[in-house]
Design a protein that fits this description.
The protein is α/β, with parallel strands linked by helices and 353 residues long. It has eleven helices and twelve strands. It binds iron/sulfur cluster.
Length: 353
């Protein structure tokens, strides 16, 4: 599939989301001990007001630096951590507190580190057969063996006899991640949440695992969430991109639209830091560091790093401004009638504050 085939976004096609986040917020309480007494010393604003939709047969990427809140979003969607507020909607139905087991049949998470997610003392057959039994997909030795072979074939680890008795440390990083993906597939999920699935792999095998996920999405019709810090791979792999900064969504839209016409200075920063063979040298507008999420900056959280910051930016949180079809950016420069016109490049010379 070429990038041009992915121009139409699911939202524009009017499809119903398989899984959706509605104003999802997660605050972690921070505690410390003072003279033997535990007291609350702050709140980490890890993710706030996140809206996201995952559609069947499509990849939605969530992109951001470490500390942007992207993994927190994936963990809330996987129901590993409960949201502080907001709602998860599965197939149009709000998800309640119970029925976690039933939810896991339909929504599976692939972790970043395949070595940590596989038990080092158990072989491949154990990991896959256990998943098949837990999700009631196979009973009896013959059915389980056939199920394990089928899962290994799906992730291109063939012949199965070469892999079933191997322990995690006997596999390469790419093979381990394929086993972790096969284990997630044992539930026959309709949604796969992949949290930085290739960031711990050698560069040479990343593309193979991404292509595998793409093939599985097409063959199984799954909705896929791709969490990554690499906006270049999101452009290549995803249909839509949601860019997060310091716990908030700053830009979202079809992946080609967002990466060809970035409308938020932070998206521009990410793109300028991404390797580009056509660019002579990387252009970084203001690297800086991500702010504390215990005391996040007021107004636009990017304002301490933003070369275009205006007085309003430090006092008022920008809403999502429409900058194109299904393309929004939370930046005051995009307010109609102020700063740059919607969809245009950002000003070359930052306005003085
Ligand atoms: Fe920069 Fe202001 Fe836009 Fe934030 S709202 S990205 S500080 S111009």
């Amino acid at each position: 599939m070429t990038t041009q085939d992915r121009v139409t976004s699911p939202a524009r096609s009017g499809a119903t989301a398989v899984l959706a986040a509605r104003d999802l917020t997660k605050h972690f309480k921070v505690h410390r001990k003072v003279r033997g007494t535990t007291i609350r010393s702050g709140v980490v604003h890890a993710a706030e007001d996140i809206n996201l939709e995952l559609h069947a047969g499509k990849v939605a990427a969530v992109v951001g630096e470490s500390g942007s809140g992207k993994t927190t979003v994936a963990r809330m969607l996987a129901r590993l951590i409960p949201p502080t507020s907001g709602q998860i909607v599965l197939n149009g139905e709000p998800v309640g507190r119970g029925h976690v087991h039933d939810y896991r049949h339909r929504v599976q998470l692939v972790f970043q580190d395949p070595f940590a997610s596989l038990n080092p003392v158990h072989d491949v057959r154990y990991h896959l057969s256990r998943a098949l039994k837990v999700h009631h997909k196979a009973r009896g030795r013959e059915a389980v063996d056939a199920g394990v072979a089928d899962l290994l074939a799906k992730v291109k680890l063939e012949p199965a006899s070469q892999f079933v008795r191997k322990l995690p440390h006997e596999l390469s990083g790419g093979q381990r991640q394929r086993v972790a993906i096969a284990r997630a597939l044992a539930a026959e999920p309709s949604v796969l949440l992949a949290d930085e699935p290739v960031s711990m792999l050698d560069v040479s095998i990343r593309i193979g695992v991404l292509n595998l996920l793409g093939e599985l999405r097409d063959a199984e019709g799954m909705a896929l969430l791709y969490v990554t810090h690499d906006i270049a791979s999101a452009r290549y792999f995803a249909d839509t991109v949601t860019v997060m900064y310091a716990g908030r969504v700053v830009e979202s839209g079809p992946s080609l639209e967002v990466t060809d016409h970035p409308s938020h200075p932070y998206t521009q920063l990410l793109l300028s830091a991404a390797p580009d063979p056509d660019r002579a040298s990387p252009v970084v507008i203001n690297a800086g560091t991500i702010p504390s999420l215990i005391n996040p900056p007021s107004g636009c959280r990017f304002h301490p790093r933003c070369p275009y910051a205006m007085p309003i930016c430090s006092t008022q949180t920008p809403p999502d401004f429409e900058v194109g079809a299904d393309h929004t950016a939370a930046c005051w420069l995009r307010q109609v009638g102020q700063g740059s016109p919607a969809g245009s490049p950002l000003p070359a010379d930052p306005p003085s504050c």
